[in-house]
Amino acid sequence: MSMSNEVVAKRYAIALFELAEQDGTVSQIEKEMELVKQLFQDNGLQSFFSHPKITIQQKKAILSGNLKNAVSENVINTLFLMLDRKRGDSIAEMAEQYIQLAMEKERVADAVVYSVRPLTEKEQKEISKIFAEKVGKQELRMRNVINPDLIGGLRIRVGNQIFDGSVSGKLERMKRELAAANA
Questions:
Q1: Which residues, including other chains, have CB under 8 Å from residue 6's CB and lie 6 or more apart?
Q2: 136-162 burial: b if 16+ Cβ within 10 Å, else e
Q3: Judgement on whether residues 154 and 167 belong to the same structural domain of the protein
Q4: Residue 33 in contact with residue 98, Cβ under 8 Å?
Q5: How many CB atoms are closer than 10 A to CB 29?
Q6: CA distances from 154 to 112, 139, 166 (A)
Q7: Are both 16 and 65 inside the same structural domain?
Q8: Which range of residues forms the domain containing residue 140?
Q9: What's the average pLDDT block by block, 10 residues per block, for the chain (183 residues)?
Q10: CA–CA separation, 179 and 173 (whole Å)
Q11: Consecutive H or E run containing 141
Q12: Distance linking the first and last C-alpha atoms of the chain
């Protein structure tokens, strides 16, 4: 991903985001962008859309075929505009940038919760409430990862912050404190 690629992607994402804000469709389009991102990541469409031998018309046909009725007009228009300007290779990054903008506005952050056993919906909601406040967000989008090595308790990662309330984390801290006391 070249720097210019990222800059280009961000420009389109901001333009689309501003349209969405006017229409009140920020979170709807965010869901559509998840779809676009998946389409490009999972199906290796990235190389297809940046291929110079494939015509813009062919690219548009494939795109609208894959996204028909799944995304709004503003999204399709933005993607077509990117193809017209030979920026097909920036589409996945643009989707990612848009999602980031929407999450900023909605004061939502992605969080990974590591636990020994799967957490219930209720537990995840409670954790989201407590930790969203700690990081100045309204809510956290949780992904629960099972990690038996934790022994018990939880470890939570929000962005680059880690909250470690796991038993193994506590044992680790105790070991360090003992080592320091004996030094």
A1: 93, 97
A2: ebebbbbebeeeeebeeebbbbbeeee
A3: yes
A4: yes
A5: 25
A6: 10, 18, 5
A7: yes
A8: 109-182
A9: 78 95 93 90 75 90 87 94 91 94 91 94 92 90 92 89 87 89 84
A10: 10
A11: strand 139-146
A12: 47
Run of H or E residues at 156? strand 154-158
CA 62 to chain centre: 24
Q: Concatenate the DSSP letters of all residues of 17-46 into one string.
A: HHHHHHHT-HHHHHHHHHHHHHHHHHT-HH
Q: What is the DSSP string of 82-114?
A: HHHTT-GGGHHHHHHHHHHHHHHHTTEEEEEEE
Return the closest-CA partner of residue 126 out of 115, 116, 140: 140
What single letter denotes the amino acid at residue 11? R
| 118 and 41 together in one domain | no
37 and 120 together in one domain: no
Residue type, 183: A
